[in-house]
Amino acid sequence: MKLDYLYGIHPVREGLRGRRQPIELFVDEKGGGPRIDELLALARERGVPVRQRRRQDLDRMAGLPHHQGAVLSMEPFPYTEIEDLVSAWQASGEPGFFLLLDGITDPHNLGAVLRNADAAGCQGVIITRDRSCGITNVVDRASAGAVEHLAVCQVTNLARTMELLKKSGFWIYGLAAGEGARPLFAAGLSGNLALVVGSEGEGLRQRTRELCDVLLEIPMIGGVASLNAASASAVALFEVVRQRLSVQT
Description:
about 250 residues, alpha/beta, CATH 3.30.1330.30, Alpha/beta knot, 2 domains, four-stranded mixed sheet, 9 helices, elongated
């Protein structure tokens, strides 16, 4: 079995708290301190073996020297099947809230988007197998370990997935600029919804745009014409959160 390696204090901490199985925790033989002690305690709670290693060995495992003295070997990331994602939402009895990503290729951007999704309470994130970055240790670190708590589904055909969600009772909102797009802050974002965010440079593909029930744009009043995927997703996701909390109060 090919293992994944998480590195850095925050990703390793969330890896030890997450749903997939940690294999071994490796720490710098000359390191220590409160943050490493916390990782050691978490490892003991989960019965994860701890090994002390030289700094050079940790550099090799992580693939770079910026690991903060902690590397965690893990079983491969467990992608969720789309049918299981929908079934889990149906069983929860809560309004549906999914995030679909149409061709995010930069791992740092993807990690930041996943961190936003977890913070906003998304029940699942759907990415594509092609023209998209998968879940790697770089993505995990960029998400500060948030991906360890997210259900992530990897699909071959995003259009077919959007149609499945529509049949399950979802409205699909695409984040896009241009003709036909409504202002984000004027939209009513209640009920079961799936938000679609496009790639860093091209935005939503034409077929994806066509399958969206509503296109939304973030009003831009400064000198720049657009935001990157991570920033745009944060604005849109937390507008959903704001509206849902205002209804509850």
